Amino acid sequence: MIPAHNDSRSGECGPDLGQGGESDPAARLRFSVDAADGSARAGTIVINGRRIETPVFMPVGTAGSVKALPPHDVESLGATICLGNTYHLYLRPGAEVIRGAGGLHRFIGWNGAILTDSGGFQVFSLQELRRVTAEGVRFRSHLDGSEHLFTPESVVDFQFELGVDIAMVLDVCSPYPASHSDAAADLEVTLGWAARSRDRHRSAVDYTTTALFGIVQGSVYEDLRRHSARALLACGFDGYAIGGLSVGEPKEAMWEMTEATVAELPDVRPRYLMGVGTPEDLIMGIERGIDMFDCVLPTRNARNGTAFTSHGPVPVKAARYARDFDPLDPECDCLTCRRHSRAYIRHLFNAGEISAMMLTTRHNLHFYLTIVRRARRAIMDGRWQIFAREFLAAYAEGDSAATQ
Ligand SMILES: [Zn+2]
Predict the structure, then answer these.
(1) Staple partner for 336: which of 86, 237, 359, 365, CB 3.0–4.6 Å?
(2) How far is CA 126 from CA 15, 31, 138, 175, 273, in A?
(3) What residues have their beta carbon closer than 5 A to ion ligand 1?
(4) Residue 265 has pLDDT above 80, yes or no
(5) Which among 81, 82, 80, 84 has a CA at the least distance from the CA of 63?
């Protein structure tokens, strides 16, 4: 099990020793599993003096802002880590401005941890506007059409410049559906880039405090997913993400791929299921041993007028809520629910008031953050299965039960 390359400064990709502690030269991030109940687990990530209890939900702040809610409000909800996006921050405002501000934490006024996605997903969403070369991926800005090149190294360097706590490698996100051969070809590029990213990261060991996660790809093919996970492990990362899911494939395929991937990953590293998902998905993911989640659903749907509640989604703009003076979720203790009714929030949406989006976003994020907090407590107390079953049953009952 002792690898040939065990020196963080060797400048070469080296296998994951699975230590995760201080003796691991790559451990700028420390992760411990505090309790497990079946495959579900409660853990703690410590990085740069910041403590993140898992399972964790990371609110999405793509352009350095969780839409409709200022950073201090997001912190007050108990969020310990939020997401930024390399592609968006690189194009606007750019590295120079953020460096001038003293890093991304200071620029956006956020005291918690920050994880930045590599931008791979966004670049590969551009379709006509990008071209993959041996070097990296060349693309045109969706803002002004200007041409740019992302290489695995430049993307890692940019995230170092932002001073984020967790950086993600540049990857190729296969579209869905993709043939096995196309997905395999995309995966080979992704793995080559992952090795280059890891080498770049190791060579920066003296000056960066940023941890680096690898991203498992392989579309809906179990052999590719397993191969991807093993190859990333041979490289050695601070944590492992499962990418390229929730892109249109059936839910069963998403969970099959998650299970196959988790089976290959070491217990001592955090596992991050990217871009997932609904409240039910959080439960299903935790059940399968996932530690970290991010998704735009709670914030995006809030702005569109949908509140997530203990009894399913509430489309609060609907006419039937016009005289409904209950809170969005009678079981919720967030500031929105303690003070305001569905009827009032519906009125705010109808009147085009910005506060409609703010109040609903606050509730939705509180709801998501409460799910993972309660899940953690249930795992610690050895009653995960009961919690999961009760949550899913109440959620599936639907809003009609909540309004009667
Ligand atoms: Zn609420």
Answers:
(1) 359
(2) 33, 35, 11, 11, 22
(3) 332, 334, 336-337, 363
(4) yes
(5) 84
**By C-alpha distance, which of 290, 274, 227 is closest to 85?**
274
Give the DSSP H or E segment for 361. helix 354-380
Cα(367) to ligand 1 centroid in Å equals 7
* Residue 395 Cα to ligand 1 middle (Å): 15
Which residues have a catalytic role annotated? 117, 294
| Separation of CA 303 and ligand 1 centre (Å) | 15
Q: What are phi and psi of 403, to 5 degrees?
A: -100, -5
Residue 310 structure tokens? 């203990």
CA 379 / ligand 1 centre spacing (Å): 24
- Confidence bin at 130 (pLDDT 50/70/90): confident
Q: Summarize pLDDT for 61-81 with one digit per residue, the tens.
A: 999 999 999 999 999 999 999
Span 24-53, pLDDT tens digits: 544 689 999 999 999 999 999 999 999 999
Q: Alpha helices, DSSP H only, in 101-250?
A: 104-108, 120-125, 152-162, 180-203, 222-235
DSSP symbols for 362-393: HHHHHHHHHHHHHHHHHHHTT-HHHHHHHHHH
